[in-house]
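writing this on my phone so excuse typos. first protein, seq and then structure
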Amino acid sequence: MQSSAPLIASGNIQARDEEFSVDLQTIETESAAAAHQIVTEYLLERCNVFKELSEIRRRVCASVTDLSFGLQDNVLMCGHPIQGWENPEGDEYWEKRRHTADNPSPRTQQIFFEMTKRIGAEMQGSTKAFTLQLPASTNPGILDMGSAPGGFLTAAMKANPRSDVVALTLPPSSGGYEILAPEHLRLSVKLVDVTMMAADLGVLDIPAEHPDALQFHPKQLKDGQKFGLVICGGSTVRNHKVATYRQGRESCRLIMAQVVLGLERLVPGGTMILLLHKPEAWPTVKILYTFSKFASVKLFKPKSAHGARSSFYMVATNIQIQQEGAMIALAKWKKIWHECTFGTEEQYREAFREDQLDVHQVLAEFGPELIRMSKRVWSIQKSNLSKAPFIRGTQGRQALK
């Protein structure tokens, strides 16, 4: 029987729980499903690394959700039906991971904090993402959403010791995790549910009949407060109990809330770090393509942890938020959050229909760049999945990172 600590040490547990994350969009129209298939076929024909990874994914004997293949539709998110798992040890393995993530001991939390600090240091060494690329005289602040346990906070504050930092994170009483980064005079920690920051997202009048009418937060950020670096690292957690209307929408609400809150308060030329999954998933492709219109975009996936997962980080620098394309995207994403939170089921679906792009045009303009920036992400996941202890036809017993 493996103890939980080695699982943490090898990078299998994270506070921002990916295991039950979906690839942003929880309602997919037929056109979106078709777009996803077109992207998959495009990549299979042109990128050997992606083709090899896709084959390994077919053979992974683990829970679909544990590898972030998507909750709603296995055919849609994977591009093919997922076959049944032959090795029952796979289910036991992933169940241990879930239990450890949901019930972390103080030692486990500390181990995870150290791991996220290593990821932050690796990201900084590879991309300089935490270094503000702005004149020192402006001294803009830093906003970190989904900040627990504080590894990225540590990296950001080390790179910018004179910057004020605001950290937003889900309260432990709601299923969140403790922030273990040291207290600092320049650090302000707010225990909030980012998706419920309606006042900061421009909604001041909450309908009295809304199921969460009394749960929305008052304004958390100061009027006119601006940031040079925004970290959007939040992900849904299983222990967070939410109202019925939010179930199936929460991942979308969270990512839209973070992106909108960040972009509305980002100074021109600022940087955003955004946690995403599967560069090839159509909803993810749309985000990368859209950001590329008004920012310099690169992708980062750590080698030190979470190598077998589909997660990665978009690092968007020199964001020109004042450009027309950025303003259009911001308005669109803000509407999606609004309809996910206040809209009817039909309004919710309509917001996604309005968000569709022409997949052929996107691939014609962005396909080669998507492959170029994603190869390293796919390569790292392929390398780690190939060592999985539950791959069909293999005898390997190496732990997944």
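second protein below, same order as before
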Amino acid sequence: MRPILVLILGSIFLFSCTSNEKKDLSESNEWELILVDSIQVDYLGRVDGLEFKDGKGVLFNFKENKLLEFDESGKILHEQSYPFDGPEKVFYPVQLKYAEDGNLYGASFIGWLYEFNSDLTFKREIKLPFLTEAKDGGGLRRVLEEWRDKLIMYYPGRDGANPYDPFFFRDHFLLEKVDPKTGDAEPIIRIPSTSRYSSDKFYERPWVNFGILGDTLYFTLDNEPMIHLYDMNQNGKYLSTLNFQPSRFEDNGEHTEKYQYISGTQMLDGRIKQLFPTMEGIVVTFEEGITEDVFVQNELKDPKNFPLYPQFQNQVLKIVQLDGSLSNEIIIPNQIDRMVGLTSLSEPFYAVRDDEWLGEEQDYITFYKLKLVRK
């Protein structure tokens, strides 16, 4: 059954899938996504990086090379722009992470790693033992995490490894465990045999996305509907793979030669967008992708038509349990963009409103306050 959107007008909106089955609510794995409230931050600019923890958030704006910190009322606490040269230069810290001790770290999309003071002023650059070979880092996906007193990063380039090589994911360690005090790093985790990228076949180049809860690391390649689990206590030992079995997830399959780029030129692959491990289950959001016929007929290769993508695919939320059981699929309305601060299924979290999709230009940024509720 295809999931559908239910919209209740009034003080709240309700987003959910329908089900004809009657279940005991205490055992139900059917969920709905509720819009509880919203906040406005008095800032005119895009959100190109975002983190939220313990009642405050921080966003990055690419155009101004600026960080801005705010609280749950929308009040701006601190804001700071950074120069591109000099001793306090900072280059595009799109990846942001509040550590357990309250320190804020940022990493650029091509690897530079920084620590900031509590007022967002520059504190230091953390020098790593080698230069990354990535020219696009992890994009805007989640590739900077904390485990105990270490930072875990996607930072390819150890021993000159080329992340654009078709067998990079098969032949190399995938993440680095970094000591932020010294910059020392050691490689961790390999792709498991459950992933097609462990083979000698050619596929579309994927993007990395991962999260950590306790001593378990949850790792995805965005064009495979799988979540790989690793034990950080055993230096990233592989544990298992969970398949979240989306009802629709377009895939252009095996390629005949290396360096073919089919997704985005002939069709659009399904892609994992975000991953949130919680004690009650793993939340994954993804886009379904667009078939070749629809992609070609609507000239979606043309950049001017990129804004049309949401008309032909849904963005979906699903909850995965460690025993492999799966929730219903919840269609996320297109006005909801990137989510942040989702650490528990019983607590509210935030998401950026997509003003561009709505066709509205505001002089403030709106964050929706959302909650997942069991049906």
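Residues 127-342 form one domain. thats all i got for now
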